[in-house]
Amino acid sequence: MKILISILAIWFVALFLKVFTPSEPSKVVSAGLKRAPRIEIRESSNPTEAIQNLEEFNFTAPEQTGSVTRVYQWNTVGIRGHRLQTGKVRFDISKNELIRQIASFGVSEESLSFSYRKGNLARILERKRRAFAKRGILTNGSQYRPDYRWMIRQSRKPIQHVSQMLKQSFEKKSGKSGSDLIAYITNFVQNLDYRIPQSPREWPWKPQLQIVNCGVNMPLETLYNGWGDCDSKSVLLATLLGNLGNINTVFLEGNRHAFIGIAGMPGRNEHFVTHRNIKYRLIETTTPYPIGKISKKSWTGIQKEQFQVYQVQ
After folding, report:
1. pLDDT, tens digit, for every residue of 120-148?
2. Average pLDDT of 222-245?
3. pTM for the full model?
4. Where are the domains of the chain?
5. Nearest to residue 72, comparing CAs of 205, 310, 236, 258?
6. CB neighbours (10 Å) of residue 209?
């Protein structure tokens, strides 16, 4: 009888553990798409002509004159968490260049929906792929996402003067250079307000035209606004750092979040990823973490392979 009771007890415990012990989460690699947007495609005997002039998007705007001045002040944290003094930078933004940058990125909402005749889908998708790529949007079949490398490349020159003003501000205040300069610029971006850009957005000079920007702004617009979300601020930081020299950078996206990594040997207990045999120290752009530190949630997501890594420069 005692043996039977023991067997039943063991069986009950095993059943309890099986039912109530959480299983190991499966490893899912994110597609790295912001809110997984898709192009609406349907077969029809009378297809639409939404792509007729797809290669010639023209978000025109009147010529702008003059510039606006921006002044930012923030608290800084050194490369290893050592607090420096307050940072301050002042720079001008050309109104005409600002409009040009905004108009260069994104596609019309109309272009994301079309019908096609049987047998023509592959040709149409290839045309869309080429046309979207010219405007900073990557496509993979019906899925699309922002091309961060394109955004950085297009923005290097327009914000070159901001990188230089930040460098001059840093040298004037501390007299140091090198890795602490990276921390100084990182803190500047981290201290910009957090706000999610609207997408699609209305084009002011043609209200019926809705521009899809995947919820990301170009770096010059982020500087003008003084705010951005995780990927807008990450693109801005990668561009500012890229203007300082040859800094290898990766972009990480997944779990509805994004941040960057810069090449370099990580310190003790720092967060990093290895991409193509190079170690990248991780940088959070929405919260004032020191370089090499990200949130526990993000780090857990990386360990579970829920983030996609892109080489951007």
Report:
1. 888 888 888 898 999 999 988 888 899 99
2. 96
3. 0.82
4. 55-246
5. 236
6. 17
